[in-house]
Amino acid sequence: MNAAARTGLRGAAWVLPAAIVLIALNFRGPIVATAPVIGDIRLDLGLTATIAGLLTTIPVLCFALATPFASWVIAKADPERAVSLSLVIVLAGTVVRSMPSAAALLVGTAIIGIGITIGNVVIPVVIRRDTSPERVGLVTGVYTSALNVGSMITSLGTAPLAAAWGWPLAIAVWAVLAVIAGFAWTYAVGARAAWLRPSTANTEPLPVTGPIDQVLDTGAIRTVRAAQAAAEPVRPARRLITWGLTLAFGGQAFSYYALTAWIPTLLHDEIGFSKASSGASSSVFQILAVVGALGVPVLASKWRPRAIISLVAFLWLAMPLGLLFAPQLWLLWSVLGGAAQGGGITVIFIVIVRIVSSDADARRMSAFVQGGGYLIGSAGPIVAGSLHGATGNWTAPLLVVLVAVLTLGVVGTFAARRVS
Fold it and tell me: Which of 191, 249, 292, 396 could crosslink 343 through cysteines, CB 3.0-4.6 Å?
């Protein structure tokens, strides 16, 4: 392989992760965009607290129910087309949701959920395929960090935009992120194809499969191809670790989406923050996830996953317990809980990547764990909202979140006990 090809491939190794970061901004931000202005939406459209909770529940429920469809789409199309399709669907759903009617709000939210579901399943497959083993943890951490950066951006920006232009335009404007990500992904895919295209100056054609990092090593190429050829189809439901990871992911998702949906309201009720201040304050919980998402890959190079899961759960517990007994210290609890929730999803993705044997295995395992986990997580916002509506306080909702966090810690640690 000539020097120009090697230089191009090294560039491709970073272009794809950069595009993945822009894509990830669209996979959580649209879900939380309504939380800072939920009061305005309820007032304008006459929604109950339970129906308002559906604005966060519906996308997460789609993550569960639409996962088999997403897996089928990815199997029939290549991952590149699947990512593009997910962005187009998110864009369409964002536009529909901005129409000022209850029906459009719910339908658009469901469309967004379906688009994100496809992206949720395919991105781990792309990371595994195009990233060398030693960089999988880092790229996964960057991806999950970007998920929370997207949430932070919409949490910070939606309320001020709504104050200036109204909530419909405030939640519609985030469609621009999908457009930017679409252009970036198109460029990255084209660059990858160009860099992997056989060179006329090189008699040995470059492979079109396997991590780009490993394309630089022809010995590694043969290893990757042999491993993929020898991999047997895996039925995730027959593996005990799959069920453990699913329950752990469910505990993580339940806690995250319950708090994401209701932290602005909780801070308004308990501390007296304004709507704009509550949205800005809740963004701390989102942005601190970057610390956990990037910190976990560093720990993963030295610690076993079960130890990381135990640490994550310990930090996670500070959030519900702290808000129960000392809500005035919300900033401290948001810092600890935010870092923990970013680390939680990252370590589970790292475990999945480490235990799979092929791209097909990665797709099936990712779909199973995320489908079941998000099914559990979808109950978070509506359960928390219903308990708050029934009791008039935040004690019962926070206790339920506490149980979910304990599930992540106990079941996740047990499931990952043999993963190195």
Answer: 292
